[in-house]
């Protein structure tokens, strides 16, 4: 997964992170809804004394990580949320370019055993991480599969709601090499514009709805059965925001909020 060996193109989503006030509660919820196993204890590779746990899929791969928000983080304004990591081979150069373009640095570049990371916001204010990962020893040619267009228990779609879709598309195109081809007309809600990394459709950009407090990314996690997942959300103390609604291709998508307050999406078939 490092810059010399990865086949993940620059701008790929290579990791996802749930920031939460209750990792044990999140483990129960996402275990029931998605089928993930979230470790009961912090990963030893996580440095700096933070509680960081791996999210393990049914196939044994990693879907992402869980960061337990401690009292200091909460006092500093951190709240439960899902975050995405974009791959860049040059974290420091990308920070400088983003700041020069009106984005902001929120967590300085930091070296961890798994790579160099930083947290930034785009010029409209949507937060995300950038990362140049270090692959595990003996797996130097390892690529991230946290994102998959088709597979359950992976994030399958990345959706940006923003105050200025045109400017956001130009920003991600310039700094991460994304493409933007195709759109769906949502009537009064505006255009739903599709995003690509290379030939792969990774998600879309849409105008922010009036009830949204700020621009943000929503990540749609693949599930095996949308109705089973909906029932699990309700049974496990989550909140259903909308859906399931049929999407092009015949699958279904829905949005929810987990018991700790992090917003998420789901996508999958109806069985």
Strand order of the largest sheet: 2-3-4-1-5-8-7-6
> Judging by the overall fold, what is the CATH architecture of the largest domain?
Roll
For the biggest sheet, the summary is: 8 strands, mixed
Number of helices: 5
Helix content: 10-25%
Cα-based radius of gyration, to the nearest Å: 18 Å
What number of structural domains do the residues give? 2
> Based on CA inertia axes, which overall geometry fits?
globular
The CATH H-level superfamily of the largest domain is: 2,3-Dihydroxybiphenyl 1,2-Dioxygenase, domain 1
Q: Spell out the helices and strands N to C.
A: EHEEEHEHEEEEHEEEEHEEE
The poorly predicted ranges are 1-5
Distance between the termini: 36 Å
Strand runs, count: 16
- Under CATH at level 1, the class of the largest domain stands as Alpha Beta
- On the 0 to 100 scale, the average pLDDT is 92
- How does the helix and strand content classify structurally? alpha+beta
CATH third-tier fold name of the largest domain: 2,3-Dihydroxybiphenyl 1,2-Dioxygenase, domain 1
What does it look like?
- It comes from Sphingopyxis indica.
- InterPro entries: Anthracycline_SecMetBiosynth, Glyas_Bleomycin-R_OHBP_Dase, Glyas_Fos-R_dOase_dom, VOC_core.
- Residues 12-133, 151-269 form the VOC domain.
- With 271 residues, the chain is α+β, with helices and mostly antiparallel strands.
- The chain has two domains: 13-133, 2,3-Dihydroxybiphenyl 1,2-Dioxygenase, domain 1; 155-268, 2,3-Dihydroxybiphenyl 1,2-Dioxygenase, domain 1, CATH 3.10.180.
- Helix content is 18%, strand content 40%.
- Strands 2-3-4-1-5-8-7-6 form an eight-stranded mixed β-sheet. Strands 10-11-12-9-13-16-15-14 form an eight-stranded mixed β-sheet, with helices on one face.
- A hairpin with a 5-residue loop joins strand 7 (115-121) and strand 8 (127-133).
């Amino acid at each position: 997964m490092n810059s010399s060996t990865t086949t993940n193109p620059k701008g790929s989503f290579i990791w996802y992170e749930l920031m939460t006030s209750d990792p044990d509660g999140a483990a129960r919820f996402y275990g029931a809804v998605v089928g993930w196993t979230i470790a009961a204890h912090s990963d030893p590779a996580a440095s700096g004394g933070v509680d960081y746990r791996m999210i393990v899929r049914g196939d044994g791969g990693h879907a992402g990580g869980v960061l337990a928000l401690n009292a200091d983080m909460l006092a500093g304004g951190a709240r439960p949320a899902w975050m995405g990591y974009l791959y860049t081979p040059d974290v420091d150069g990308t920070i400088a370019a983003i700041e020069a373009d009106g984005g902001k640095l929120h967590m300085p570049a930091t070296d961890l055993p798994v790579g160099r990371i930083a947290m930034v916001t785009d010029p409209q204010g949507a937060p995300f991480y950038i990362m140049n990962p270090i692959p595990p020893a003996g797996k130097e040619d390892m690529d991230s599969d946290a994102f998959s267009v088709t597979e359950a228990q992976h994030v399958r779609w990345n959706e940006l709601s923003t105050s200025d879709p045109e400017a956001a598309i130009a920003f991600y195109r310039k700094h991460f090499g994304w493409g933007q081809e195709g759109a769906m007309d949502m009537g009064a809600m505006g255009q739903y514009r599709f995003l690509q990394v290379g030939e792969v459709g990774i998600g879309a950009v849409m105008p922010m709805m009036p009830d949204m407090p700020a621009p943000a990314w929503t990540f749609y996690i693949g599930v095996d059965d949308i109705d089973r997942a909906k029932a699990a959300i309700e049974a496990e103390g989550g909140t259903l925001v909308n859906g399931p609604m049929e999407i092009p291709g015949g699958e279904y998508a829905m949005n929810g909020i987990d018991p700790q307050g992090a917003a998420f999406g789901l996508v999958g078939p109806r069985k």
